[in-house]
């Protein structure tokens, strides 16, 4: 993403200033305003890819609207200048006094569970627990005294990208990875995998045995999952809530604190890790937060120091700060910063003059790769990838490509494409859409070697980082794009899990709902020519085929289909074509285990589409109620032209709500087609 978001935020400073707030509660305003004044509307609009008139209207709206919340997320954060972008947003709210009051302020929507809580306990290499600073000697003394630590680091440790570079170079000989999957989630991911392969000692704690990172573990420790452990989490309004286990610990799994404590005790640190449960750890955390504080630090929950196990079990959600003593902090977690009181040496906020970097030039023929998330998956799918329902909407890795860029490269919808650069390559399914801008391509970050071949997108992501935060720029890498020339495309539904698939491209997803897995669906492609019978047999054989089989071939159309049955039920179906396979995935995915005793019915299945009395749902849009695009389109044609109406008629969009925007697009498409048809009829 260009520096447009940052320039946009800086430009907002030109609208409305709260001179009294600036004078009373801030420093650095003059330099920040001088830097912002260099950005006229035309410059901002060009950098952000917006119309100048729209930027002007946005500034006017911001200037005359008292209550403004700036919600920002990974598009701002995951950038090599993300710190500058956040500072630009903070500058705007400080300069206008729109902070700490109802309905106004900056609001970072993070992508991690308990991101706030992780920072409260010092869960990064450059900070101490309880919002204390590693570079502050007084803070280090407090932590060292409370923990009775013989030594305490005085310098920041290595951030994630630098850490794996040090492992790759041999400067770090042992690493313990807990609850993360860096072989897939970090930039330049193949180099991360290579680093772990070189490391003499790799320990991995995880709740899932089969991950791309766990493959490199010398020691694999079974950790407790979210619903199996006790603790607290903190949300974005500073509210700490108890998390209570609702499942028993399976096998030898233990919560992280217990694993860490056991290892520490065996290394001779029993006194420092003599915890008997989460309550004792929380009590120590609360005590640390209040030690030497006296209102000088925002995070203070010392009212809970010494909490008993019984009180911890009954702990109700609360907002911090909750100090044990009377301080200048707002009582019972009240609002911060409306009247100043910033946690700096002079109590004033600091506006930072921001100078945007010049974006790297994109060479001719190259594209900007933007990576991110999709609706129904979470991170690297170690857990969400275990349920078929969450694959019903999108079941394979894809690249969104603008129609102009696709046409220039001879790429059609559903083709397979190769994204590449000097770091490696990824093979993805083409989605041709104007949801991306010309010159850009979007790909999701979820797919791993567990679910696909050659589709780990972070292989291509640059390891360049923000110089302050160390955050890699996951939203902007330079890639090439070309069509993959496959000789055969395949789709299959199978009873068994393939042990090995000898194809240039494959992507597998579970079938079924909830915890039940009814089989697997498989997309694949072969680069070499082969007899289709052999390809189909390869898939069915590896996945366990039945004693009865049926096949159909149309050489002129380049089609081949084969099915296998066991005891009258379908256990495998393979559809091959010279072009991307045109078979309804939602229909085919429902065939697994279907009782098909009659030969005539089996021949009907080979047609690759549902019978006339079984309407095709189309691609699943609502995962909650398994409602397809064709069903929504039919309802819209019948006159149901609101998202709420679709929810009432079909249920889609009435539960979690994450599909509502897609439902709205489908309705809009139907209405546009109806309007075009009406216009043609009127013109006839």
How would you describe this protein?
- The protein has 684 residues and is α/β, with parallel strands linked by helices.
- It is 30% helix and 18% strand.
- It has a six-stranded mixed β-barrel with strand order 11-15-12-14-13-16. A six-stranded antiparallel β-sheet has the order 18-19-17-22-21-20, covered by helices on one side.
- A hairpin with a 4-residue loop joins strand 20 and strand 21.
- Helix 1 runs antiparallel to helix 4 (41-48), helix 1 (4-11) packs parallel to helix 7 (82-95) and helix 10 (160-169) packs across helix 12.
Beta-strand portion reads 15-25%
Number of strands: 24
**SS field, number of helical segments:** 22
Distance between the termini: 47 Å
Global Rg? 28 Å
Whole-number average pLDDT?
A: 90
Question: TL;DR of this structure?
Answer:
With 684 residues, the protein is α/β, with parallel strands linked by helices.
Write the layout of secondary structure elements.
Elements: H1 4-11, H2 19-25, E1 26-27, H3 29-37, H4 41-48, H5 52-64, E2 69-72, H6 74-77, H7 82-95, E3 105-108, H8 115-120, H9 137-147, H10 160-169, E4 174-178, H11 182-185, H12 189-198, E5 201-206, E6 219-222, E7 231-234, E8 239-243, H13 256-266, H14 278-290, H15 309-313, E9 318-319, E10 349-350, E11 367-372, E12 398-401, H16 403-408, E13 416-421, E14 424-432, E15 440-444, E16 477-483, E17 488-494, E18 505-511, E19 519-526, H17 532-542, E20 548-554, E21 559-566, E22 569-577, H18 585-589, H19 599-605, E23 620-622, E24 627-628, H20 629-637, H21 643-650, H22 660-683
Parallel strand pairs: 1-10, 2-3, 4-5, 5-6, 11-15, 12-14
Antiparallel strand pairs: 7-8, 8-9, 11-16, 12-15, 13-14, 13-16, 17-19, 17-22, 18-19, 20-21, 21-22, 23-24
């Amino acid at each position: 993403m260009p520096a447009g978001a940052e320039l946009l935020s800086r430009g907002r400073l030109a609208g409305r200033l709260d001179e009294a707030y600036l004078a009373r509660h801030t420093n650095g305003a003059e330099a920040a305003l001088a830097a912002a004044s260099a950005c006229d509307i035309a410059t901002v609009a060009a950098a952000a890819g917006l119309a100048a008139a729209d930027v002007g209207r946005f500034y006017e709206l911001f200037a005359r609207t008292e209550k403004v919340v700036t919600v920002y997320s990974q598009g701002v954060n995951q950038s090599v200048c993300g710190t500058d972008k956040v500072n630009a947003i903070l500058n705007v709210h400080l300069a206008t006094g729109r902070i700490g009051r109802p309905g106004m302020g900056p609001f970072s929507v993070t992508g991690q569970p308990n991101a706030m809580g992780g920072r409260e306990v010092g869960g990064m290499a450059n900070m101490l627990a309880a919002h204390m600073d590693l570079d502050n000697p007084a803070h280090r003394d407090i932590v060292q005294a409370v923990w009775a630590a013989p030594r305490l680091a005085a310098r920041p440790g290595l951030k994630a990208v630098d850490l794996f570079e040090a492992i790759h170079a041999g400067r770090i000989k042992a690493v313990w990875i807990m609850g993360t999957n860096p072989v897939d989630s970090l930039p330049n991911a193949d180099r991360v995998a290579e680093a772990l392969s070189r490391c003499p000692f790799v320990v991995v704690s995880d709740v899932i045995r089969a991950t791309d990172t766990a493959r490199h573990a010398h020691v694999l420790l079974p950790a407790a999952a979210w619903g199996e452990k006790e603790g607290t989490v903190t949300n974005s309004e500073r509210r700490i809530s108890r998390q209570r286990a609702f499942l028993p610990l399976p096998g030898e799994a233990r919560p992280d604190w217990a694993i860490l404590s056991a290892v520490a005790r065996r290394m001779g640190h029993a006194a420092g890790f003599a915890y008997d449960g989460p309550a004792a750890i929380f009590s120590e955390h609360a005590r640390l937060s209040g030690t030497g504080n006296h209102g000088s630090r925002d995070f203070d929950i010392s009212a809970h120091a010494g909490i008993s196990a019984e009180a911890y079990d009954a702990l109700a959600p609360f907002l911090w700060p909750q100090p044990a003593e009377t301080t200048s902090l707002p009582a019972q977690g009240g609002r911060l910063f409306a009247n100043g009181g910033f946690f700096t040496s002079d109590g004033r906020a600091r506006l930072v003059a921001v100078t945007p970097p010049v974006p790297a030039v994109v060479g001719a023929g190259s594209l900007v790769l933007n990576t991110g998330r999709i609706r129904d998956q979470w991170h690297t799918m170690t857990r969400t990838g275990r349920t078929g329902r969450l694959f019903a909407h999108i079941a394979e890795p894809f690249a969104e490509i603008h129609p102009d860029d696709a046409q220039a490269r001879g790429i059609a919808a559903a083709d397979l494409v190769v994204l590449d650069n000097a770091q490696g390559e990824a093979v993805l399914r083409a989605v041709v859409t104007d949801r991306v801008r010309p010159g850009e391509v979007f790909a999701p970050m979820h797919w791993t070697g567990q679910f696909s071949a050659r589709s780990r997108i972070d292989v291509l992501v640059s390891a360049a980082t923000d110089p302050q935060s160390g955050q890699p720029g996951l939203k902007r890498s330079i890639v090439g794009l070309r069509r993959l020339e496959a000789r055969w495309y395949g789709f299959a539904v199978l009873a068994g899990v393939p042990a090995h698939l000898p194809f240039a491209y494959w992507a597998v997803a579970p079938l079924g709902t909830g915890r039940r897995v009814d089989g697997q669906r498989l997309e694949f492609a072969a680069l070499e020519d082969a007899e289709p019978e052999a390809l189909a047999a390869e898939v069915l054989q590896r996945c366990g085929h039945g004693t009865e089989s049926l096949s159909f071939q149309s050489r002129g159309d380049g089609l081949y289909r084969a099915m296998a049955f066991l005891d009258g039920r379908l256990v495998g179906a393979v559809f091959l074509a010279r072009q991307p396979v045109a078979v309804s995935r939602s229909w085919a995915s429902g065939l697994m285990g279907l009782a098909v005793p009659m030969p005539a019915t089996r021949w009907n299945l080979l047609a690759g589409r549902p019978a006339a009395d079984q309407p095709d749902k189309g691609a699943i849009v609502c995962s909650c109620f398994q409602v397809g695009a064709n069903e929504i389109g039919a309802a819209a044609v019948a006159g149901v032209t609101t998202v709420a109406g679709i929810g009432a008629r079909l249920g889609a969009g009435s539960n979690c709500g994450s599909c509502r925007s897609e439902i709205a697009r489908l309705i809009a498409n139907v209405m546009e087609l109806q309007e075009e048809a009406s216009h043609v009829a009127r013109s006839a």
